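chain below, 105 aa
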Amino acid sequence: MYIYVPTNVKAHPPILVVPHCMPWHGAGMQGNGSPWNAQADAYGFIIIYPGNLSSKDSCWDVHSTASLTHTDGDPTGIVSMVKYAEQHYNGDSNRVYAAGHRREA
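prediction:
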């Protein structure tokens, strides 16, 4: 997990989860000119850039029974990351969002 907490983070900040696309990783999303960090600086929210280590090609598991039922796999890991941000940075569990992007070909 790569987490961005701005210096002016709000007291009970929203949390934004930004999963990566293929073939990037969480670190790549944070460092590839993503506009999200500047937005977090402006508005005081936390960003989670989850990394995916469950697949050799860094794809998110969106098809297994475990992932689709949220009993194991990638969704469980992302939920754990959000809970970490809630506990360690007083993140607002009622304002957790996800954002994506379109990868340029």
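The CA atoms of residues 8 and 44 lie 6 Å apart. The beta strands are 2-4, 15-17, 46-49, 96-98.
thats it, cya
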